[in-house]
Structures are given as structure tokens and as C-alpha cells.
Amino acid sequence: MNAAQRAKSGLDSAQRIVVKIGSALLVDESKGVLRRRWLEALAEDLVALHKQGRDVIIVSSGSIAVGRRYLSLGSRALRLDEKQAAAAAGMIRLAHAYQETLGHHDLIVAQVLLTLDDTESRRRYINARNTLGTLLDMRAVPLINENDTVATDEIRFGDNDRLAARVAAMISADTLVLLSDIDGLYTADPHHDDKAQLLTEVHEITPEIEAMAGDPVTAHGSGGMVTKLAAARICLGAGCRMVITKGHDDHPLKRLAEGARATWFLPQATPARARKQWIAGSLKPVGTLWLDPGAVKALHQGKSLLPAGVTKVEGTFERGAAVIIRSPEGHEMARGLMTYPSADARRIAGHKTAQIEQLLGYRGPDEMIHRDDLVLL
Length: 377
Known about the structure:
377 residues; globular; alpha/beta; single chain; 8-stranded mixed beta sheet
């Protein structure tokens, strides 16, 4: 299979796609304004994917690059607090541009502000995952911006690529597209080495691959190949494909599907399998649920765990915690992630889902553990 066939196959089979857009693509660096024509062409690509029934998520940089113009900060190097102020001024304009552009195609854009901390805190992680999942179920297009007004590490170290990878892992995306100012990973810096060769496929981030990473090459962008490889490592671990391709020209996603030069990072597992492995082997359980025979049968049929089938809840934990699931005989039969904290789980254990609101005073999920967050052992 040649490069064009691999690219087409990668996008054709993708059902949930995260597209990361760098500042250098979205913003005219000389003027500090959005490249509207480019954004409109990208919107057409996104709409085409959306009409095919794909889930589309955008992770966009550019708020600082846009905001500095409106605050008259010039082209000089900015202090951290000035970058945060520029982000605040630019973020609203950036979101409006996406809303206006995609709105012309009758797509609903929903802005979500995240930081890397939000992907590391279990409670915020599960809340963000549920929100994004609900938006996708409603056929909206989540627009994720780095919350640079409160984040500092992302601004300092250019972790926007890594944030995009964390988002892809969080929502079990199968493909992350990094639209960049370079068309992939080279064996050496192509700006300084004429013999540098493009790697079209990478299956593992080895020390040799890491040694090929270079430095940032743009004034407004803060990333570089180092952060892209960090993103690739996250994606591979989550069973998500990642591709780096040049995005400066119009219709970058269409060009990618037609075989544009790119580097594909290909995992060994699917997102679902990788997530199950993570739940089963990487998380430390902090509680235990005991089931009745009917619930055991339901889980073996691939169903979610409902409160009615839980006979006892052991441990103290928060929402999103990993727990052991035991059969009536005491055998560890599964592990999963809780949709309720332990106190609420005890209140609704053994009750029907229709009683949840009456018992808790709020309407929570029907499931105590969703089947996507449960793995049988």
C-alpha cells in the first residue's frame, strides 16, 4: 500500500476524528488576523466528514496570536501574564470565527475550555468526557481551546499538541490529525539537511525516533516536533492513529485523503481495546461492587451495570474511580469506572433507575458503570 492509499484508508475508516489546528495556520503572522479563506476551506472539509456520519472535534490554537493584536502588544516577546491577557481577548474572537464559519453549513459549534490538568484529574476527566460525548451524540462539533487564561505550563512549553492527544484518548477517538507547518517527521531537520527523508509510518516511539525531533520554527506557534512525538506516544498508548501533515494550503483534510505527504503513527490496538486494557491493568481499584446473578448475566451479555443489580458497595471513592466487580460467590469478574461516588452508589444500590432522582435528589446516569467503562476478566 502506497502513501496515498494509506492516507485514504486512514481517513476512510475513521469514525471519531480530532483535528488539531496550529496558530501558524490559522493566523496571518504579519497582521495578527485570522486567515478567513483558509478557515472557510477547512470548514468545507469538516462538513464533508460530518455529513458522512463521522464525529468531528476541533482543538484549536491561535487565541494568543489573535488577541495580541487587539491589545496592541506588537510582535515583541510577551510576558506570561501578557500571553494570558492576549488569550482572553483572542479566545472570544476565535470562537466566534468558528461559530460563524461552520454555522453557514448549519453545524452547531460548542466551545469547551480545557487544560492538561483537566485530563489528569479523575473527576474533571470524567466530567469532560461525558460532556464531549453528549455533544457528539447531539451531532454538535466541540471546539476545544486551551484555557490559556488560567494555564501556564501549556503556554510555556507548547503542550497544545499533547492536549489534543489527551482529548483524543479521553473520548476514544480513532484518529488525531495534527495540521502543521511541516508535512511530517523527517530523519533530520529538512530546513538544514537536504538528505533528510520523510518517514511515512511510525509504529513505536523509539529513542532513534525521538532523536529526529527538531525545534519550533514559527514565531507564534510554541510547539515543535518534540511535542508532536509526545502526542504520538499518548495516541499509540490509547489505540488512536495520529497523522502529521502540512496544513497551510486550502482544504488540508481533503488533500490528506487524496494522499498528501504525511507521517502516520499507527497503534497496535483499537481505542476500545486500549481503554479496556487501561481499566483492567493500569488503574488501582479503590472500591468493590457485589452483584446479584441477574447482573452477572447482563454483564456477560455486554450490557451496562445498573444499580438494581448491585447488592453491596464497599470502599470510599469519587465519581470516575476504578472498582472491582464481584459475583455473588465473591469471584472478581470485572473492573470498571464508576459514574457515581460511593455515598450515592450505596443509596441507589438495589433500586431501579426510575428511583434514582427520588433517592439522590438529582437525575444522574441510568448506569452505575457504563459498558464502555467496564472490562470482564
